[in-house]
């Protein structure tokens, strides 16, 4: 059986300050550091939404 280490907010802030996650889009969710997909710029997001709506 493996034990999963849960990170605290203080741990996460220390990791961010140490630049370990520089250039990575990560979030602390329920004690786990999750790498998130990059966000689309607003203009692209709006164009994508408009395209989807037009296809319906």
Notes on the protein architecture:
This protein is α+β, with helices and mostly antiparallel strands and 56 residues long. Helix content is 41%, strand content 14%. The chain has a two-stranded antiparallel ribbon. The radius of gyration is 17 Å and the shape is elongated. The relative contact order is 0.14.
Note the main attributes of this structure.
two-stranded antiparallel sheet; 14% strand; alpha+beta; 56 residues; 41% helix
Oligomeric state = single chain
Radius of gyration: 17 Å
> What structural class do the secondary elements suggest?
alpha+beta
Placed side by side, the strands forming the largest sheet appear as 1-2
Helices and strands, in order, run as HEEH
Distance between the termini: 48 Å
Number of helices: 2
Fraction in beta strands: 5-15%
Low-confidence segments, given as residue ranges, are none
Average pLDDT across residues?
81
**How does the overall form come out from the CA principal axes?**
elongated
The tally of beta strands, per DSSP, is: 2
Give the fraction of residues assigned to helices: 40-55%
Please describe the biggest sheet, giving its number of strands, its sense, and whether it closes into a barrel: 2 strands, antiparallel
């Amino acid at each position: 059986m493996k034990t999963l280490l849960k990170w605290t907010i203080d741990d996460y802030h220390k990791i961010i300050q140490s630049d370990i996650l520089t250039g990575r889009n990560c979030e602390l969710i329920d004690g786990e550091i999750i790498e998130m997909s990059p966000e689309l710029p607003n203009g692209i997001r709006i164009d994508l939404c408009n395209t989807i709506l037009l296809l319906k």
